Structure formats: C-alpha cells, structure tokens
Amino acid sequence: MNSTTTIGVLGGYGAVGSAAVRRLHQAGVGPLLVAGRDPARAAGLVRALDPAGPPAEAMAADLDDPGSLDRFAARCGLVVNCAGPSYRVLDKVARAALRRGTDYVDAAGDDPAAIRLHTDCGGHDWLAAGRTAVLSAGALPGLSGLLPRHLAKDAGPLLRLDAYLGGVSALTPAAAGDVLLGHGPEHGTPAAAWRDGGVRPRALEPRRGLCLAAFPQPVNAFPFLSTEAGRLARTLAIGEVNWYTVFGGHRLPEELATAWALGSTDPASLVAAAAQDVRHHGSWYGQHFQLWSGSTDGPPAHSLTLRADDSYELSGFMAAAATRALLVGGIPPGVHFAADVLDPRETVAALSADPAAHIETV
Fold first, then answer.
1. pLDDT tens across 216-272, in order?
2. Per-residue model confidence as pLDDT tens digits over 159-196
3. Residue 352 belongs to some domain of the structure
4. N or C: where does the chain have the smaller number of CB atoms within 10 Å of the terminal CB?
5. Residue 171's domain is classified under what CATH number?
6. What's 329's DSSP letter?
7. Is residue 307 part of a domain?
8. What are the Saccharopine dehydrogenase NADP binding domain coordinates in residue numbering (predicted)?
9. β-pair partners for 302
C-alpha cells in the first residue's frame, strides 16, 4: 500500500469510528471514505475534519445490504469496520473486503468472526489472495491483550497475571448488544481461571470494594476468563491468569444479570442502566495488570495501569493503529488478532502520547 490508498471506515461516524477517523486524518492517512447507513451523519463528520488534511468523502453503506457493502469495498484499498454490534457484523464486512481484494481491520470481530473466517470462509483464502484481516482491534479485546505483552517483555519466567478491566461508561446500542451476547463459550468462561496450561472452571469468586490505581473509586470485579486471556496465557506461557470484568456502578451489572437470566436481546435496558451509573459515578475506564515473575511470594514484580475517560476513544486508537501498521507492511497476510501482531512497545509509546489515555508502568 501507499499514501494514496483509500481507507474506508464503515460506521465511521459512530463513537469508535469517529475516533478512528480523526486519528487517521490527523496522521495524514488517506484518502478517507466515511461510510454508514446515514450518509448525512457521515458527511457531517467529513465537514468537521481539518480541510488541510487528506481528502475525505462520505458514502452510504448498509451492513444488511451485501450489494451496498460490495460497492463500498470496491472503492477501498483497506476496509476498517467500526460498525456494530459485532454479533450482527460477524464476517459480513470481511467477506466483502476479501471479495473485492482489500485488506481488513475490525475494531471488534473477536472469536466468533475469526472462527468463521478460518472455517466457512477459509483462513487460507486470505493467504492465497495475499490479503490481511486484523480482528479485535479495540480496547477489549485488543488493547487488553497487548498491554500485558508490553509488561512481560523484559520479565523472567511468567508465573501469574491478574487483570482488571472496566469502569463506568455510557453504552451505545451497538455496544450494549455486544455486552448482552458476549458471554457464550466463543467469548469466555465465567468464574474460570487459567491454571497450568488450561481453563479451570469455577476457580474464582467476585471481588468487591477493590481499590486499584486504574480506577478512581472502589470497584466490584467479576471473574470472566475471556478467550483472549486464554490465548495470551498460551502465548506467553503464564502458569496462572486471573481475569476480571470491573463495574464501577451497580445498575449495569444488575440489569445485565437480569437480561442474561431472561434471555433478553433488547439492549435498551442496558443503555438506560449504564446511563444511570454514569449520572451517579461519572464516566471513566481503566485496565490494571499485575504480573509476578520468578516468584509469587509478595507483591507483583511488575504492574501497568491504564486510565481513560472513554473506552470508545481507546478502541478508535487501536483501530487506527492497526490500520497504520497494515499500511506500512507491518502485518503479514492471513487472519490475525490485533494483540498478536501489533508491536507492543510501539503501540504503548503511541498510546502514551495520545490524550485519550494515561499509562503508568512499574
């Protein structure tokens, strides 16, 4: 690819997409094609961009219209998907990109999309075409799998990793939809931990009233061993991984538990519950990692704290980082997760300079 490659961002005017578009445009990446179901909103974002930057254009593209996706992908040298919810997107946009011979970045994607790209579509098709698909280029999963790699880069034998991820944030309907359906075996195992090379069910209990540097107030943490955490444990050969989802408020976890119990797929109640938590506690997000190497006696040998006001901005950062890495040839053909192929040192350095995040490493 070169500096004239057209980058198409589907869902480019949403919370994640607009964050990615702004970063790409500020970095001089383009031309940009901002697309979505509402071309007026796409045009509004384009007008708000600095006219001195790369060219940008709005376009209508509908996730539920394969012909529309094909027309969009045909105009792009690289397709970036920031539309959601990911359980509806799955591999739809990736397939359109492959049909049109373009590379692909997804701010979500996750294991359900990866499974389909490796089976139904065939991961080998991407290799045969010499094209690349990068999935999970968001805050969680994505950044959550990359930050521990940065923390472990100079550590000795990795014995234990504890991770706490979450906070208080408004939910878009797409994000709420993903939260509702993001608890099946394709996503992870509740109450499980990683022990000596495998998943150990029912190994952990919730932790309440925790005070951690990543969060401005005490939080409740619920164990959920994500598939990303399992991949991380295998890749880094960590003996023990304890992975927690953090809630800073009470309404969202209560409403989520009720929705799961009733099998609800309506995101409206989660959106309202998240908004109520924001009114009471403010909006903030964090990721906190503790790593033991050499010995598990005493405090962790290394720790990393990420604090942010907005997780959507972090996802936009990651989507833009994956896009830029692809443009310079830093990711080989095939289907990959962002945390596996982005350079941890370079990505953390760039994020440390981004106004959306504050990182401390000990």
1. 999 999 999 999 999 999 999 999 999 999 999 999 999 999 988 888 888 899 999
2. 999 999 999 999 988 888 888 877 667 888 999 999 98
3. yes
4. C
5. 3.30.360
6. T
7. no
8. 8-109
9. 291
